[in-house]
Design goal:
Layout: H1 3-26, H2 33-40, H3 44-50, H4 54-66, H5 79-95, H6 99-109, H7 113-128, H8 132-141, H9 150-168, H10 174-195
Helix pairs in contact: 1-2, 1-4, 4-7, 5-8, 5-9, 5-10
C-alpha cells in the first residue's frame, strides 16, 4: 500500500470524524461544508471530490460510525437460527449507535429532502435487505417459497427494535429477540409460505 493511499484514508477519517463531531454538537441544519473543512483541516475541493454534498457526507459518516452495513454471516443451517442471528446483528448495530445522533438525523430528514433521499437510498434500503441472505438460504433449502414479502419482514423487525431502543427503553436482550422470532416473525413467514 503506497503512502498516498494511507494519507487518503487518514484524510477521509478526519473528514468523517469532523462531520460526526459537528453533527453531534450543532446538528445537521447548522452544519456547513466550510465548518467541516475547517475542523478536518481539509479543503472543500478535497471533500467534494469524494462526496457530492452535505447529505451524502453525513450518511457516509454515520455509516462508518455505526458499522451500518452488516457483514454476511455463515449459514447456520436452519431458518430460525438464521433469522435470530440477523436480528442479533441488527440489534447490536442499533444499540451501538449514538441515539442523539440518529434521532437528530431522523428529525432533519423531515425538512431536508436531499438528506431524506440519501438516507432512504443508502441506509433504509440496507435495512430492507438485511434478511435477504437468510431468506435466500431458506428458499435454497426448501424451507420457504421464493415469494416471501421480504420488505415486510425487515420493516416489522426494524420497527420493533427501534421502538425498544429509542421509545420504550425496554431491554433488547436475547429473550426479547427469541420471542420476536418465535411468536411474530416465523409465524408471519409460515403464513406467507402457506399463501404462496
Amino acid at each position: 500500500m503506497g503512502w498516498w493511499v494511507v494519507r487518503g484514508e487518514v484524510r477521509e477519517e478526519a473528514i468523517l470524524g469532523a462531520t460526526l463531531g459537528l453533527l453531534a454538537e450543532i446538528g445537521y441544519d447548522r452544519m456547513s461544508m466550510d465548518a467541516i473543512a475547517l475542523r478536518a483541516r481539509a479543503s472543500k475541493a478535497t471533500i467534494y471530490r469524494r462526496w457530492s454534498g452535505k447529505a451524502e457526507l453525513v450518511v457516509a459518516a454515520v455509516e462508518r460510525h455505526t458499522g451500518q452495513r452488516m457483514a454476511e454471516r455463515p449459514d447456520p443451517g436452519d431458518l430460525r437460527a438464521d433469522v435470530l442471528g440477523t436480528l442479533q446483528g441488527m440489534r447490536d448495530g442499533l444499540t451501538g449507535q449514538d441515539s442523539g445522533l440518529l434521532l437528530g438525523l431522523l428529525t432533519a430528514m423531515h425538512h431536508d429532502e436531499e438528506l431524506a433521499r440519501t438516507v432512504r437510498a443508502r441506509m433504509v434500503d440496507d435495512k430492507r435487505q438485511a434478511f435477504d441472505p437468510a431468506i435466500d438460504r431458506a428458499v435454497a433449502r426448501g424451507e420457504l417459497p421464493a415469494a416471501i414479502n421480504r420488505a415486510l419482514l425487515a420493516e416489522l423487525s426494524s420497527a420493533m427494535l427501534f421502538s425498544r431502543a429509542f421509545v420504550t427503553g425496554e431491554p433488547l436482550d436475547d429473550e426479547f429477540l427469541t420471542g420476536l422470532v418465535d411468536d411474530v416473525l416465523l409465524p408471519l413467514l409460515r403464513h406467507q409460505a402457506g399463501d404462496a
